[in-house]
From TrEMBL:
Organism of origin: Litchfieldella rifensis
Alphabetical UniProt keywords: Signal
All copies of domain Solute-binding protein family 3/N-terminal, residue ranges: 36-265
Pfam families reported for this sequence: SBP_bac_3
Encoding gene, per UniProt annotation: ehuB
Similarity-based family: Belongs to the bacterial solute-binding protein 3 family.
Signal peptide: 1-25
Record lineage: Bacteria, Pseudomonadati, Pseudomonadota, Gammaproteobacteria, Oceanospirillales
UniProt-listed InterPro entries: Ectoine_EhuB, Solute-binding_3/MltF_N
Protein name: Ectoine/hydroxyectoine ABC transporter substrate-binding protein EhuB
Amino acid sequence: MNIFRTAITANVLAVAIVASTPALAVTLDELRERGAVRAAFANESPYGYVNEEGVLTGESPEVARVIFNRLGVENLDGILTEWASLLPGLNAGRWDMVAAGMFITPGRCKEVAFSNPSYMMGQSFLVQAGNPHDLHSYEDVANNDEVTLGVLAGAVERGYARDAGIPDSQVQELPDQTSMLAAVRTGRIDAAALTSVSIERMAQLGGDRVERAEPFDTPPEAIGYGGFAFRKADEALIEEFNAHLADFIGSEEHLELVRPFGFTEANLPGDTTAEELCQGS
């Protein structure tokens, strides 16, 4: 039985990571010899987070563990960092990959290389109980200048808000899900925007003071596909990773693995590739 190790470096949270000289490529042989792959995550449930037992889990780390096990790498060592530091830290060589459920976008593809996607997902809002401002879309926020929307710093929801015409003065960036949930509960913000499965989890944790906005109108451009980020120099590793990922995604084993995190067959990415997503297709 393989051991699932989690090494969490809390000091990363306090340090701004600046990528100077790009790190050299890591090979599969190096990872096999080391016995572990270093995977960064941002503690966002259900994509990549530490559970009550102190173990790194979530859709992204669990899928990554399976794929690397098949590649002969026994352990996955998790490194906790803020969302905005995930890609700079990757390029600086502080970790080997990002396993945080990150959406594959043309902008991010300029910085790093992505695996093919492991899921697709729409959007939603977390609001106060009863949804007092009747918010069911980004456009609803744009049409009410008294509403403040919270987004995760460095995440794609910031761009979705701008695309919908929401002025910067109505948007507040927050570092993590915990602060987003607290801000909605206390009324500091009127809604928090994240993927639908994340919002559902936050609503469950938040008790009777918050709820998921239903229904919710996700604009077509906000339907995202999440994958694993690697350095651009890691072409050979990505090719090996993708080959095993293709065999795994959509299998019964895969669906059973991700079901506890709220993922179903409806979230399968189909034949969409990272290349298409990087081109904006």
